[in-house]
Write a structure and sequence with these properties.
Blueprint lengths: L1 H17 L2 E6 L10 H9 L4 E4 L8 H15 L3 E7 L2 H12 L7 E8 L7 H7 L2 H4 L5 H4 L7 H4 L7 E7 L21 H4 L6 E5 L10 H13 L7
Parallel strand pairs: 1-2, 1-3, 3-4, 4-5, 5-6
């Protein structure tokens, strides 16, 4: 019996030592990997193994992008993954969960930090989908990010098996950065549209949507959450 227990302990220690862990950083709609370079470099400086995931947000639909991400992670053969997403990148991860949730061999998802995610859709998407002339130019994903309760964003899986932290941009006033969106907003979406209701922690920053990924405070908050499972708002 002692030998059996020792064997289990030994294997646990062995698997812990040699376990492989990667953090995927994922840009948003209309963005590129360059938008996530600052965050990725901060993660590398903190000794994380990273991958800056690239995808064509203007031409490939979210379902397909989610599957591409799923296959990319499977090929990497890591044991554990975390994600840092900006904007639509959060929906990319949730789309990927459609495939990951039914695969018992998929890596363990440890933590996710979503920066300004349109989890409940984005009010700016509602505005643009009404413009038929522009709608075709914006590709397949803008329509999927509407705030309507029947929209694609609302139907995607919710990451319940891991710890989720969300960073949300606000102006802190009754009128946000975009005056055409009712209530406070980061220029593209409201704080209410960013949340899922299962967050381990949420932090609000007085910054615009596309500026968030370039802020030192965001990089510090991301690393703190990945390490601890909650934000240190004093960072």
């Amino acid at each position: 019996m002692k030998k059996l227990i020792f064997g289990f302990v030994f294997m646990f220690i062995l698997n812990t030592i040699f376990a492989s862990y990667k953090v995927y950083v994922i840009h948003g709609y209309g963005g590129t990997t360059m938008m996530m370079n600052k965050i990725e470099n901060s993660l590398k400086s903190a000794h994380y193994t990273t991958e800056n995931f690239a995808y064509k947000s203007l031409t490939i639909d979210l379902d397909s992008i989610g599957k591409i991400l799923f296959n990319s992670i499977k090929k990497s053969k890591v044991d554990t993954v975390s994600f840092v997403t900006h904007s639509m990148g959060g929906l990319v991860v949730r789309s990927m969960l459609q495939y990951a949730n039914t695969d018992i061999y998929f890596p363990v998802i440890h933590r996710i930090v979503m920066i300004a995610p349109p989890n409940g859709g984005a009010e700016i998407a509602d505005f643009f989908t009404k413009k038929q002339g522009i709608k075709k130019l914006l590709g397949p994903n803008v329509e999927l990010m509407q705030t309507d309760s029947n929209s694609y964003a609302h139907k995607l899986p919710i990451p319940k098996s891991c710890e989720l932290g969300t960073i949300i941009g606000i102006r802190g006033k009754s009128v946000g950065y975009n005056p055409f969106i009712k209530t406070d907003n980061d220029g593209l979406l409201t704080p209410k549209s960013a949340t899922l209701g299962i967050e381990k922690d949420i932090v609000y920053l007085h910054e615009e949507h596309n500026i968030l990924t370039q802020k030192d405070i965001v990089c510090k908050l991301v690393i703190y959450f990945l390490k601890n499972g909650f934000f240190n708002s004093k960072k």
